[in-house]
Write a structure and sequence with these properties.
By secondary structure, the protein is an alpha+beta fold. It has 14 helices and 19 strands. A hairpin with a 4-residue loop joins β5 and β6. α1 crosses α14. It binds flavin-adenine dinucleotide (FAD). Pfam families: NAD_binding_8. InterPro entries: FAD/NAD-bd_sf. This is Amine oxidase domain-containing protein.
């Protein structure tokens, strides 16, 4: 496994279950990828700053259950009140309330027209032209105006929701997501510590996990695959029959790989969006109040990017979660500085007597949401991408192959296992 986030960890555990020997090469110093938990030394509480919620499907319950991590129903942050603020001015937007989601049944009807979107990118040929429209046009055509702002809240990290092809919105705010929300069946870890799953998996996989590891050379031939890796404990050479790439499949991920022209041409089409999170320790912020960033004068009141999605109650005293996004590249330091400046503006504008005591965590989750242009999708990009499964002994899973949803990625990965194990 190259990459030990949600997909790589799941695949390693399940392939070992099936009797195969595995090795996980993870660049970071821990497994989990976008799953990260902050343990507050002041209150002793924990808050997940990345992946938060899961679908109630047997595979999710089994995966958490085998590692003894209890799940409970997600009921939101009890007692939270949303205030609607334009972070560009620091002012509460007078009179703004989110529109009643009267178009939700119409949106569900559209998702039901494209059931394959809930399974992956196995798209029909030709790809329905509707799915390739900029989502703003798609929304007007189908009368979805009343839920555009709501969908933007679910589609964090996807860039400018009005301009991206509708297919990416429909995949991220999927039938599974809508069903789980409407039935109140979403799950969260009881201890508010999703990282526990990955810590337990790290222990279970033992020396088969190489943390802080970088691939330096991959050679794939008829007689097997050789992966050279540098690790904090020195170089390692892994001999394997199959490779499973779960890291984002940008060309930059494949440094040292013997990519052929087909692989290079396909991965070279991807571009990506940008997403950051932080945990802010605040004083003066009213307890139980979350701020949603809205544009006072923008279409659908969607806040422009780069910018905040919101400042959210965490359930841990004095700690709020920060979500920030951008369509184009912005340096981490610039984002961090913007977050600090925008929090100060809330005070200067007289909206909240808030003081930033410190950013306890600041993290770029980049690259986030790999996408291609509508013309590529129409031209069969995803058919060619899926056609790479098994080529040169290499298989692929992860968000770029389906969607940013751990539960659905585990299901997608599970369905791929027989082919990998064959
Ligand atoms: C802030 C945030 C909140 C989210 N909330 C939710 C949620 O509530 N529920 C949900 O289901 N999903 C959520 N997601 C979506 C999340 O992206 C997916 O659920 C899932 O984590 C994606 O899994 P993955 O395996 O594709 O990628 P990741 O989990 O990111 O794993 C990829 C791994 O590859 C490693 N890597 C990258 N490059 C290399 C390399 N060259 N060599 C070796 N290793 C490499 C990375 O370090 C990482 O560990 C959230 C995402 C973010 C950023």
């Amino acid at each position: 496994m190259i990459g030990g986030g949600a997909s790589g960890t799941y695949a390693a555990v399940r392939l070992r279950d099936l009797g195969h020997s595995v090795a996980v090469v993870e660049r970071a110093g821990r497994l989990g990828g976008h799953t990260e938990t902050y343990h507050d030394p002041v209150s002793g509480g924990s808050t997940d700053i990345g992946v938060l919620i899961y679908h109630d499907i047997p595979l999710v319950r089994d995966f958490f259950g085998r590692f003894g991590v209890p799940l409970v129903r997600y009921t939101g942050q009890g007692g939270t009140t949303n205030h609607y603020v334009d972070f560009r001015t620091g002012l509460v937007v007078p009179g703004y309330t989110p529109p009643a989601p009267v178009a939700l049944p119409a949106y569900i009807g559209l998702l039901q027209q494209y059931p394959y979107l809930d399974q992956g990118f196995d798209l029909p040929d030709p790809v329905p032209a509707d799915l390739l429209l900029p989502f703003g046009e798609f929304a007007v055509r189908h009368g979805l105006e009343s839920i555009v702002h709501m969908l933007n809240g679910y589609a964090q990290g996807l860039g400018d929701i009005l301009r991206i092809p509708a297919i990416y919105v429909l995949k991220n705010v999927s039938l599974s997501v809508i069903n789980s929300v409407l039935t109140g069946s979403l799950l969260i870890t009881e201890r508010r510590d999703n990282s526990e799953l990955y810590e337990k998996a790290t222990g279970w996989l033992g020396p088969d996990v190489l943390l802080g590891a970088s691939v330096t050379r991959v050679r794939r031939g008829q007689r097997g695959i050789q992966v050279r890796v540098t690790t904090p404990h020195g170089p390692r050479v892994i001999h394997c029959r199959k490779l499973l790439v779960t890291a984002p499949p940008l060309l930059s991920t494949f440094g040292g790989f013997d990519l052929d022209a087909t692989e290079r041409a396909i991965f070279g089409r991807f571009r990506h969006h940008h997403y950051w999170t932080a945990v802010a320790r605040l004083s003066g912020m009213p307890a139980g109040v979350s701020l949603v960033n809205v544009g006072a004068d923008t279409p659908y009141n969607i806040a422009p990017l780069p910018g905040w999605y919101g400042l959210t109650v965490t359930g841990v005293p004095d700690l709020w979660g920060v979500k920030y996004g951008s369509t184009g590249p912005v340096g981490d330091q610039a984002v961090r500085a913007a977050i600090v400046a925008d929090l100060r503006r809330l005070r200067r504008a007289g909206s909240y007597p808030v003081e930033l005591e410190g950013l306890e965590v600041f993290k770029g989750h980049n690259p986030f949401e790999l996408v291609v242009r509508p013309g590529d999708i129409a031209g069969g990009f995803y058919r060619r991408l899926y056609g790479l499964q098994g080529r040169n002994g290499t298989f692929y899973t992860g968000a770029a192959f389906h969607t940013h949803d751990s539960s659905l990625l585990w299901r997608f990965t599970e369905e791929l296992l027989p082919r990998i194990a064959a």
